[in-house]
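Let's practice the habit of predicting before peeking. Look at the sequence and jot down your guess about where helices and strands might fall. Then scroll down.
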Amino acid sequence: MVQHLTSADFDSVTASGRCVVDFWASWCGPCRMQGPILDEFAAEHPEVKTCKVDVDAEPALAARFGVMSIPTLIYFEDGNMTGKAVGVQMKEQIAAALGV
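Done guessing? Here is the structure:
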């Protein structure tokens, strides 16, 4: 299941374990392509927290991580950013970035 994050819960959710966060917006065509891929990834990898941040609703989070283009996927392990990818990413690319 994909979890939608806000500034209020972002740090607590990403603090432990492996996590992928998709920075997106509803008006972004490539973001709409990324959504179903993330849904499939989440179903296949329940051990990874799969999350989304709406950049229009949470511009401070986008700025904090230097998100300039969307979709941007940022990878975390135990609260530390371990990678970043701009543009649509396939399930295999996400899995490889997270080492799963």
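How did you do? Helices lie at 10-14, 29-44, 59-64, 91-98.
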